[in-house]
Amino acid sequence: MNGKVRLGEFLQTRRSQLQPEDLGIPGYGERRRVPGLRREELASLAGVSVSYYTRLEQGQSLNASPQVLDAIARALRLEEAERLHLHDLARSSATGTGRGRRAAPERVTEATGQLLEALAHVPAIVTGRRSDVLAWNRLGHALFAGHLDPGAPDRPADRPNMARLVFLDAHTRDLYADWPAKARAVVGNLRLVAGRHPDDTALHALVGELSSKSTDFASMWADHRVTACAVATYEMRHPLVGPLTVTQQTLSQGLGPDQGQNIVVATTEADSTARTALALLDQVTPQHDPVRRGIRAGSR
The whole model's pTM is what? Predict the structure, then answer.
């Protein structure tokens, strides 16, 4: 799918999700043939002509200015991550998508490995931009994927992928009490990454695989929601230590060899039952150390 189509689908979907009455637009009791705002209503709110907005939605207008895009974002009530995603899509639409290419294999640096070791008593994993697990510390493996081989991230061909786990793995699905919330966050993040990297063939293959194997994913993907997974609280139902509420924080690696990678850590409130459950998990988890092997393999 080219950039013009992606931009048009995003605008059409988000426009259909806005109700006129929520924006103070009188409906006069009329029945609408399609849900959401009409193009002319959205164009009026954004301060652009109907013909211009229509061409933009249809992929016939290129090089929309940042000011126009921001005005459309305000009219659509987009959040900051969604506004940036709109700019990414418009940029891709204007420049055209080049030939698909495979990015170089993602590797974890020695510095990131040291950070995982320093977080020995906090569950932590390193994910690549497509949500592949590049490394995890002992507790990260035990909390998120204790049913998998702890050495799997060391082997690029066998690396777990968090999006696949959330949608296709029964253990991970049962792990989250509010699975739909976790699933929507995963899809929203993939949407964000896809906008930034429109030529990533591996990412497109992942989306295609999940769309064909999971009707839940296909439905959520079609919704065009965008989510920057920075901080989120989840109730987990761990098979070894029972229920615990954790705050998952995603620390993005912005520059250098780690660019595009994220460190995901799970923390608990002090003096909580969740903190006690996590301490118990620490005690019952075998003392293997997958981090060191993964870092040596990745730094060659």
Answer: 0.83
